[in-house]
Design brief:
Layout: H1 12-21, E1 27-28, H2 31-34, H3 40-44, E2 47-51, E3 61-62, E4 68-69, E5 71-76, H4 77-87, H5 100-116
Antiparallel strand pairs: 1-5, 2-5, 3-4
Helix pairs in contact: 1-5, 4-5
């Protein structure tokens, strides 16, 4: 983990739980991540306004009921996962996947491996970096 990371002191399990929320497609409320222990300042850096481009379903934002949302503010899960991997210094460039869902799964797997390598995974002792 980068020494200046806003994730400094966050438990590895909280990081893993935040990663496991993401699916590569969903735009989340920031509270989805802060509720599991990710600092507000870190999550806030991923909040963005996303507008639908209705010319293509892949770039259109939908509600759970299938109706189109013109624009929404939130945390795009795939961008958040990518950021976690960068912060944790996890290389996912060679995952071989192009689809958003498959890329998300590859990053989640890499974060799980990182989590499992943390010393004793004692959740009373937050991760303090390399």
């Amino acid at each position: 983990m980068k020494n200046t990371s806003l994730l400094q002191g966050v438990s590895p399990s909280a990081i893993l739980e935040a990663a496991n929320i993401c699916d590569g497609h969903t735009i989340f409320k920031p509270s989805a991540f802060t509720d599991v222990g990710i600092p507000v300042d870190y999550v806030s850096s991923y909040v963005q306004e996303i507008e639908s481009d209705t010319r293509d379903p892949k770039s259109t934002v939908f509600r759970h009921d299938g109706t189109v949302i013109n624009k929404v503010e939130g945390v795009y899960g795939l961008r958040f996962l990518t950021g976690l991997c960068i912060e944790l210094e996890i290389d996912t460039e060679d995952s071989g996947f192009n689809g958003r869902g498959f890329r998300a799964q590859a990053m989640q797997g890499a974060i799980k491996k990182w989590h499992d390598r943390q010393p004793d995974r004692d959740e009373t002792e937050p991760y303090e970096g390399p």
